[in-house]
Protein: HtaA domain-containing protein
Amino acid sequence: MPETSGAELRWSIRASFLRYVAALPDARASVSDGARLTRDDPQLVVYPADPDATTDSTLAFRGDLRLSGHGGLLFVRLAGPRIELGIDGGTAVLSVEDPTSEDGTGPRLPLVTVTLTRTEDGWSGSDAALTADGVALFNHVYPAGAPFDPLEIVTTATAAHVVL
Ligand code: HEM
Structure:
């Protein structure tokens, strides 16, 4: 089993999107179920490991980030990310719980593809790119394949500057 106990996923998603939402006059951001937002620049969302759902091929995390604005027209929920490891270190897929329902009961949404490489204390994910399935979540602003931010999975908790 991959070493994810005590691990966390740190990801700025796509910094331009977080900045865009933060600049809306009625912007709201909430984190729950163990997720945290940092004050780093770019700002990171930190999702703690979910060892019970982690398998040989899946790195699972919990935590729920919700962003809203534009009088409720904009609502994006990014919760319970899971990374399906690619075969032989190939492209991995990060999915999130159904972002359209409050309780995430619908099918998971494959959000980005990402190239994972081992680091001293976990994994680093580069070349993140939006899937075709993820396009609607961002109001069709980003096309399929649009670059998303790199991510880190660390096994030691050194996260500082915790806001929430
Ligand atoms: C009242 C409805 C909306 C209006 C008036 C609106 C307006 C805008 C404007 C003016 C921009 C350009 C901002 C800039 O370049 O600084 C933008 C960007 C964007 N909007 Fe909206 N928007 C609306 C709804 C939504 C919704 C529902 C979503 C869904 C998530 C969304 C997602 C985005 C994204 C992803 C960007 C690109 C941010 C970036 O990476 O720079 N918008 N929007």
